[in-house]
């Protein structure tokens, strides 16, 4: 790894230095959090089209029961229901803060996890040569003054979506996220400052990293209201460990007025075998995910009213279950949107239906809405990105989405 890239990522992991220098508050108060479900979650189980005859017929063992039945779906409307394991999110739907965009995804037909994730994170489907991620381009184009903690990536490795020239702070996973690191040593900082004194770019990166760590440490050191536990289980970024990490991320965003963008990822959604229905492997993962998203909302507290949380996966899964009681790599999926600015209580997007003639390649839910079409109104109407900035974030972007005006509150 290039030494500048190393500094941009590892040196920004949360530590405990005093704040070195005040920065102008760059936050407009409007925030965006992206949660990526790596492994291709089954959107036809998350928001199940129980009103379609082909749904249950294609999934004799894993179809979710209709609303009102034992272990049945939570009714969203006459066509769709929410997986019962996502019960913690029902209050957000009823409160008008949760919406879904079904039959959405990437226009590129790849069924490769690696390629599809890369296309989502670069924001340029079908183009592998893009060097940076769309959230880093967004960070560089937002109005207002920059700050070392304006964008935060949660995890142990640098995410593709935030790769680029703009500095990004990093919050680790588990209790170790709060531990001091070698970069927190004042002697090491002084030595690096002397080493990079003749390189303005590296000197600026070092300054951003040390100040960013200090700013996050200061924010996280503030006492929590009753009922907010600042600890978390150690482990990989799986659905099981997501709740505590998500709450910590929400607390950081709420307490640090500079933080405007955040990214985190949850793995384990490649359910080829024994997927289950209302109970089983997928249900267990969704239950943990639902708890985590609710914990993220709780951690955000009052900041939730100005925050949009986007949940997306690289592609969907097949309509028909396979011989192992699971589902294989598919196309269309469902995007989730949660937060105060969201015009919730609705399932948006053009629904193509599940007739064989409507399926992509005769097997998958067709992609009717490009994921960028969902993100574009968020970047402009919510975050204030200019037309020129949007063109840089999503070059060769698709046409404006017909439901764009229905996505956010007026």
From TrEMBL:
It holds the Pfam family DUF1501. Residues 104-127, 139-158, 209-239 are annotated as: Disordered. It comes from the Bacteria. InterPro entries: DUF1501. This is DUF1501 domain-containing protein.
């Amino acid at each position: 790894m290039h030494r500048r890239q190393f500094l941009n990522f590892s040196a920004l992991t949360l530590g405990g230095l005093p704040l070195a220098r005040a920065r102008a508050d760059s936050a407009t108060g409007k925030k965006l959090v992206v949660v990526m479900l790596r492994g291709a979650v089954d959107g036809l189980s998350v928001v199940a089209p129980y009103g379609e005859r082909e749904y249950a017929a294609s999934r004799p063992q894993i179809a979710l029961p209709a609303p009102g039945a034992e272990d049945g779906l939570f009714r969203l409307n006459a066509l769709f229901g929410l997986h019962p394991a996502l019960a913690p999110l029902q209050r957000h739907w009823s409160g008008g803060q949760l919406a879904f965009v079904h039959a959405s995804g990437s226009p590129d037909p790849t069924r490769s996890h690696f390629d599809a994730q890369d296309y989502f994170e670069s924001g340029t489907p079908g183009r592998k040569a893009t060097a940076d991620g769309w959230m880093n381009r967004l960070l560089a184009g937002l109005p207002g003054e920059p700050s070392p903690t304006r964008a935060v990536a949660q995890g142990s490795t640098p995410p593709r979506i935030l790769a680029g020239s703009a500095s990004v702070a990093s919050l680790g996973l588990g209790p170790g996220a709060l531990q001091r690191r070698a970069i927190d040593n004042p002697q090491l900082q002084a030595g690096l400052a002397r080493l990079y004194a003749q390189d303005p770019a590296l000197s600026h990166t070092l300054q951003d990293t040390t100040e960013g760590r200090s700013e996050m440490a200061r924010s996280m050191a503030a006492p929590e209201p009753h009922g907010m536990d600042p600890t978390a289980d150690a482990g990989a970024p799986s659905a099981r460990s997501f709740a505590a990490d998500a709450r910590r991320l929400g607390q950081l965003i709420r307490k640090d007025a500079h933080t405007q963008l955040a990214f985190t990822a949850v793995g384990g959604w490649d359910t080829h075998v024994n997927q289950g229905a209302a109970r089983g492997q997928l249900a267990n993962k969704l239950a943990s995910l639902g708890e985590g998203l609710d914990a993220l909302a709780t951690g955000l507290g009052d900041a939730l009213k100005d925050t949009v949380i986007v949940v997306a996966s690289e592609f969907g899964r097949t309509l028909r279950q396979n011989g192992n009681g699971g589902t294989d790599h598919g196309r269309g999926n469902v995007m989730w949107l949660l937060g105060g600015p969201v015009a919730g209580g609705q399932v948006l997007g053009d629904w193509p239906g599940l007739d064989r003639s409507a399926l992509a390649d005769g097997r998958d839910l067709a992609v009717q809405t490009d994921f960028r079409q969902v993100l574009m109104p968020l970047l402009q109407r919510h975050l204030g990105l200019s037309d020129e900035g949007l063109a840089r974030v999503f070059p060769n972007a698709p046409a404006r989405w017909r439901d764009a005006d229905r996505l956010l509150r007026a």
